[in-house]
Design brief:
- The chain is of the alpha+beta class.
- The protein has two domains: 74 residues, no CATH class; 76 residues, no CATH class.
- It is built from three helices and eight strands; from the N terminus they run ββββββαββαα.
- The structure holds zinc ion (ZN).
- Zinc ion binds next to loops.
């Protein structure tokens, strides 16, 4: 279920509700549905109609009675500890990616960070760092796997 709520940040926040009741334990593969705790996290996603979009994602930690661990749910479209969806990181990567011959940057990190209103705690310098970090991370991933982050 998706609920879009307008937000004071001049952005749209889409509240996600995950429909699966449980997961298979990543340690022992047992099906588990006992939620240990849920933490809502705000995750940047692709803009819609020029509007900045955040997803409010319930990050669920389950409890596995058979192996006594509390694994966090694995979401194919959101890697661990990310504050942007995989497809948004791919999009940022493509925006600043080196292309053409001779190689050139499509847009500078600064331009992308401004275009995307990538405001990290209202501090422009840090939002450029965020774009730079995403770019390097995705570039490394591509070099290693030749694949795409997108699900
Ligand atoms: Zn288990």
């Amino acid at each position: 279920m998706l609920i879009a709520i307008p937000c004071t940040l001049d952005a749209i926040v889409v509240k996600l509700q995950l429909v699966n009741a449980g997961i298979n334990c990543p340690n022992c593969n047992e099906y588990i549905s006992h939620v240990h705790q849920t933490r809502p996290v705000l995750v940047r996603d692709l803009s819609v109609f020029g509007q900045v979009v955040y997803l409010k994602v319930p990050r669920r930690q389950f409890y596995c009675f058979s192996c006594k661990t509390s694994p966090t749910e694995i979401l194919s479209w959101l890697n661990k500890k990310q504050r942007q969806t995989n497809r948004y990181q791919e999009y940022i990567y493509e925006k600043v990616s080196v292309a053409g011959d001779p190689p050139r940057k499509e847009l500078t990190v600064k331009q992308v960070s401004e275009n995307e209103k990538m405001c990290v705690a209202g501090e422009p310098r840090r939002s450029e760092d965020a774009v730079q970090d995403i770019f390097h991370k995705v570039a490394q991933f591509k070099k290693k796997t030749g694949g795409c982050l997108r699900d």
